[in-house]
Predict the 3D structure of the following.
Amino acid sequence: MGLFKFLKEKFSKKKDNEEAKAYEKGMEKSRKNFASRLDELSKRYASVNQEYFEELEQILIESDVGVELSLRLIEKLLDESKEQGITEPKKINEMMVDEMFVSYATAGDTIKNEIQFVENGPTVLLVVGVNGVGKTTSIAKLANRYQKQGKKVLLVAADTFRAGAVEQLTVWANRLNCPIVTGKTNGDPASVAFDGAKYAKEHDVDLVIVDTAGRLQNKANLMSELAKINRVLSREIPGAPHESFLIIDGTTGQNGVLQAKAFKEVTPLSGIVITKMDGTSKGGIILSIRDEIGVPVRFIGLGEKMEDLKEFDLDNYLYGLLLGESEA
Amino acid sequence: MAFESLTDRFSAIFKKMKGESKLTEKNMDEMLREIRVALLEADVNFKVVKAFTTDVKDKALGQDVYSKVNPSQMLVKICHDEIEELLGSDQTDINYNSGKPTVIMLCGLQGSGKTTSAGKLAYLQKNKLHKRVLLAALDVYRPAAVDQLKQLSETVGVDFFTMGTDISPVEIAKKAKEKAYNDHYDVVILDTAGRLQIDETLMKELQDINKEVHPEEVLLLIDAMAGQDAVNVANAFNKDLRLTGAIMSKLDGDARGGAALSIKYLTGVPIKFAGIGEKIDELEVFHPDRMADRILGMGDVVTLVEKAKEAIDEKQAKKDAQKMLDGDFTLDDMLRQMKQINKIGSLGAIAKLIPGMPTLTDEQQDRAKKEMKVFEAIVNSMTPYERRHPEVLKFSQKSRIAKGSGMTNADVNRVIRKYEQSKEMMKQMKQYQKSGKMPGGGFPGGFPGM
């Protein structure tokens, strides 16, 4: 049985599943673009031909899936359709979803989505990403998530560069009733990290979330700032940072792959958080980053509310993206 | 690999064509395929890429180019014209309100760089155009957005307007405009909250502000890293607000700015400014023709010259140049020159603007900066006489200088050697000048460490 059918059946039984519903709702706009276009395409052709595949390629590329991966998917579909003599458009689309699933699932490590806590002492999560991707907001949502699980969370405002960054995180800390360690504007971020680590050890904190400056990834000295923060953290707390999340804006294009690559060079990324998936962007960048970098997506932002940061689930994601088609 | 800049990709493609003596349909198809991938990877909109490659092919085939000229050159020319057309051929200015305050409203998605750009735009208006600017905070939603703008206004040194976060942005806009009229400001910049183009409530709010204050300029912020959806975003904002232009933010770094190539062509909204770095003065008026040059790897000498003009005191530069050529060039002069070059921007940014100059890696830039610090420390530890005549320095004096600057004797020797080399270069330049020929490439004086 094809994976697509499998998903469809799985989800028809899973209608009340809350997570699946959140994906359904959050990705409504994305789906409208992606799924309805696939659907419309399959209705226009009685059987697939060269033009069909060209149009399919266009849909993939316009969803930010990336040229390389798109071309590879299409090539594979071409081969398989020839080999198996399949010409029915709907079948081809289903095969494509299968391929997308397989490509994601086999492209890198699988790991639990939830933050992996160490047994003793504080667990440190370093949060990196370029400007404007929603780092601070994601940190607030993550803090809220783990507070609800009964963890004692500390926020560390090591973004001393951007005007207003410390204030923004402080506002969140107050709303969440969560301790925060801050430093001076334009001060040394590593010393803020040091203070944070010290506070965490003294106050039995379970989870330390370190916000860093959202500096563009191609500036060597800015990246060395991150390396220094890492050095300080690991000196104070063994193994820290235990997790490093890269935040990527879901509306980012192929530059997202560059961002992931660059950050991976300076800090061992253990996960990616994709934000702003509730816009109209199709977030194909999820597939391209996975394909090129291999780092798993751990969380996905499906809306502005605190609870809208969800664990990433490939089934739900593909289902959310394609639901329109299966029900049309 | 897939991740060089668009410029590098184009250079490589054209280089390949250089080996071809004739332009045939076959080799052109191959080249167009590569151009297509390069553009798509730079996030140029799919439709634009399609139109681009089709047009380039038509134009190339329509012309009698097969035998006449170097096919590579011909293609560069065609691609250049085509890109320029995509970007819009005119540089478009702000529509200033004569005699009255000009209202500029900034809008865009969350995280597109509105607040930062508001600060940079204020800086540009104040320092380059000598306008009296008022910065107004209309983002009552994002935590600390008002603080951020306030800090920026202090950095720039312009007045700041806020009514807190409990008042409706429409009301704030109205009052900000009133204040601008009463207190005779030239420009008032409204920094609105980020929003999704599909958020009806918030889009309505922008429309209300629009109706209330009738801004002369409604500028959309577009993130240079945006993907294929950027055009949909621009279309939606344009439909609701009738944009007068766009600011491309984060065009520095690795962003290949494909969205820049798509917006004008697909929406008709011209790009007016581009943010090219994180410093407050790093917002530029956008020049489509120069951008086309830059994309195709021809360098952007005009921008460099303009930048240099702003940063360098022209009289001093002329004096220095004459001194150099007269062989009357001291270590002091050399240090001043290096500092001026540093002011223009990072060395890497300069290198990118000069055709044929190799791109500097970040490490190289860092090294150059460090070397410059060493240079400065050493020169500052010399007496004025020593600066004019470093050749007289003896071991003991060198040791004193090394100690005073916290460097080693070897460092001191290196600085002196650099100076001698530069002097030697000056002499050669003078000879070239006399003979009417100039040696190509390189700044006189030379960067340390390069």
Observations:
- Chain A touches chain B through 53 residues (CB under 8 Å).
- The radius of gyration of chain A is 21 Å.
